[in-house]
Protein: Histidinol dehydrogenase
Organism: Novosphingobium aerophilum
Amino acid sequence: MLRLNTRDPGFDKAFRRLVRDRRESDENVARDVQIILDDVRNRGDAALAELTLKYDGHALSDDADWRISAEACREAFDALEPGLRAALELAAQRIRTYHEAQRPADRDQVDETGVRLGAVWRAVDAAGLYVPGGRAAYPSSLLMNAIPAKVAGVGRLVVVTPTPKGQVNPLVLAAAHLAGVDEVWRIGGAQAVAALAYGTARIRPVDVITGPGNAWVAEAKRQLYGVVGIDMVAGPSEILVIADGRNNPEWIAADLLSQAEHDPAAQSILITDDPLFADNVADQVGVELALLPTARTATESWNSHGVIIEVASLDEAPALANALAAEHVELAVEDPEPLFRAIRHAGSVFLGRHTPEAIGDYLAGPNHVLPTGRRARFASGLSVLDFMKRTSFIQMDEAAMRAIGPAAIALAEAEGLPAHARSVELRLGI
Amino acid sequence: MLRLNTRDPGFDKAFRRLVRDRRESDENVARDVQIILDDVRNRGDAALAELTLKYDGHALSDDADWRISAEACREAFDALEPGLRAALELAAQRIRTYHEAQRPADRDQVDETGVRLGAVWRAVDAAGLYVPGGRAAYPSSLLMNAIPAKVAGVGRLVVVTPTPKGQVNPLVLAAAHLAGVDEVWRIGGAQAVAALAYGTARIRPVDVITGPGNAWVAEAKRQLYGVVGIDMVAGPSEILVIADGRNNPEWIAADLLSQAEHDPAAQSILITDDPLFADNVADQVGVELALLPTARTATESWNSHGVIIEVASLDEAPALANALAAEHVELAVEDPEPLFRAIRHAGSVFLGRHTPEAIGDYLAGPNHVLPTGRRARFASGLSVLDFMKRTSFIQMDEAAMRAIGPAAIALAEAEGLPAHARSVELRLGI
C-alpha cells in the first residue's frame, strides 16, 4: 500500500505516476486473436469446435454440446434456494426499473422555415452478451448486460459462455432465464466473439456485443469494433473513497476490500483529511484481510495497488478525483452534495456514509458496467442507449427549399461539389 | 452500374453479394500506424516535426508553423464573400439549434424503498477534431463536428489539420472561427491523432477525437479507442433512393450523383417499382455526368458501385433497405410515412420528393457524420452525446439499507465475494 500526503514535496510527482499507472495487461494477443477471428470467419462452426476443444476441453458434437436449452435455464432458476431466487428477482426488477427511464424520446418538429426535422430511436435487431466461465461468471453481470438490451427492445439476445470441461454455472443459467435470454451457446474466448460478429451456420450474427472477458475477449471486441457495436473496453476495477474522520474505519476498510477482492490488479484508494482515521483504516484492512476467504486476491491488490492519500482539507479531493476519473467514487461524509457537484469525472458516485459500493454492484439499479482506467473522462456506464441507435430525418416542401436551398447551393459550390448544388437547384427550378 | 430485379431468379444471391460488399480499403496500415503512435508517444514534438516534414512537406519550426492563430481564422472569416459568409452562418445556426435539443436531462429521484438514484451528464474536458487537408477539407464537416462539441459544453476544442507544403484552406479557417474552435494545429495523419491522444510538450491531450480522415487516420483512431473516446469508424459514403415513377428523373439522377461525386468508392442505389422510370434515371445520369466538373470521380463510383433495383412493388423496399442499412435514404414518394415507419436501419432519412440529401450535408440541422457500411444497424450519427458522459449515483440511508441490503448480501455470497457482503452487513449492524 502506498501512502501519500499532498503536503509532501514529492506529492505531485507521485500522484502523476499514480494517475498514469494503467494496471492493464500488456499481454500482446492482437496477432493470435486476429488468426482466430479469420479462422472462425472462414471455417465457421468447424473452427469453433476445434478451438473450443483446444481451449475449453469441451467437445461440440450434438446440439446439447453446442447450446444450453431454455428448459435447462428455467430448471436452474427453479432449483435456486428461495432466498437467493428472491434476491435475484429483486435485483432484476430494480435494474429494469432504473433502465426503463433511460429509454430515449423521439423528436419530430417543424421549424420556422417549414423544415420538418427529427430523430427516431430504434433497438438493434440482435445483441450478443459475453459471459466468462469459471470464477468470474457472475449472475449479476448477466443481469446488468441483458436487462438494458431487453429494455431497449432488442429482439434477439444471445449469450456465449465457455463451459470448461463441460461444466456449466447454474447461477448464470438461472440469471439467463430471469433476464429472458433467447439463446445460450457454450463457446468462449475470441472465437465466441468472432462467431457473434460474423455468424456461422449454427449461430446467426448479432449487431452489438457487450460483456466482460479476459484479454483475448477484449482484444477480439476491439478488432471487431465497426463490424459490430461494442461496449467500452474494460480494465481492472477501481474504487476511490473520499472520507472524513467521522466514519467507522471498519466500514471503509470493508469498502476498500470489496474492490480489492475482485482482482489482483484492482485498485482501492482512500482520500481523507484525518491522519489518525487513515491509520485506523489501514489497521482495519489488515484485521479484515485476516478473516477474508478472498484474502489472497485482496492482499495482492491492496499491497500492490492500494493507496491512502492524506489531504489538508477535503476541498482538495475533487481535483484529485477528477484526475483519477475512477470507476467508483464513495463520498463518505455527512453532506456529500458539495463534493459531488465538484466531481466531473467518475463512473458512478455513492453518496454518504450508508452507501457501500457493493450495493451498486447488485441491485441499487444503475448499471455496474462502468468505465475503468480513467475512461470516465469520456465514457459512460452501460445503458439502454448501447443497444439502440438514432435515425435522423428531414422533410422539406417547396417553400422550405426556397428558404434554405440557396445557402446550400453556395456551400456546395464553395466545397467544389457541383452535383450537390445541382440537386438543390433543380428543386428550385434553377 | 448494376441492374437488378427482385423477380429475377438470381436476385437473392446478387443482393446478398451487394450487402456484403464493403467497398472499404483493405490497405493494411495497422503496423505502420502503430509505429507512428509509439514514436509520437515517446518523442513528442520532435516526432511530429519529422513526420510532418516527411508526409506533408511542411517544416514545423517557429510557432506560426505549428499553429494557426485565432486572428488568422477571424481574418479568413471576415474575408469571405458575403453570400458565402451568410450561408456558413445560416448553416452554423441551424446545426446549433438542432443539436441543442440533444442535450440530455439529468435525473434524480427517490424510490419507494428510500434509495435515491440518478445520473448527471457532463461534457468531456477537451475534444480534438481531425480536419483533412486538401480536397476533402470541407468547412461543413468542421461545423458538423465542432458545433455538437460546443453545444455539449466542451471547454477546449482543438483542430488538427495537415497543411501540405504549408498550404492552408481559408474556408476551413473561417469555419473554425465561426464554430469557436480554441486551437488549430498544422499537423495531420496518424501522428496528429497520436498527439491529440497522448499529448506532447506543445499540445495538451484531449479526451475525445472525432472527424473524418484517410485509412491512416481511421486506423490511428481505432488503435487509440479506449485511450480516448472516438466517433464511429467511417467508410465510403452511400445513398439509397427509393422512388416511384412519378419523380422527375433529372432530380433523382442528381441525387445519385451527389453521392457519387464524393469518392470513387461511394455508392448510389436506386430502388423503384417503375422500369421505365429506372431507364430514364439511368439515361439522365449519363446526361448529367457529361456536364459535371466532378465527372471523373462520379463516373468511377457510378460505374463500379451504382445499382438500380427494380421491385414489383415499393412494399418490397423496406426489407431491402434494412438489409443495406444505408447512410442516407431518400423516400421520393408522395406519402413517405408508411415506408419511413418500416425502415429500421438508416443513418438519416430524407422524406418526400423535395428533400435532396445535399440539404442534410449542409444546413438542414441534423449531423452529416453518419454511420456507413451497414453500421446504421447499430450506430448513430454524431451527436452532442459523443462529447458527454453520464455519471450515475446512488444514495442510501439506514432504512433503505434495511430494505435492500439483505438481498445484496445473498447475491454477494452466491458470487463468492465476502468483502462485498461484509460492507453491507456492517451497515446493517450484522
Observations:
- Residues 67 and 185 of chain B are 4 Å apart (CA to CA).
- Chain B has a mean pLDDT of 96.
- The first helix of chain B runs from residue 11 to 20.
- The domain at 2-22+235-364 of chain B is CATH 3.40.50.1980 (Rossmann fold).
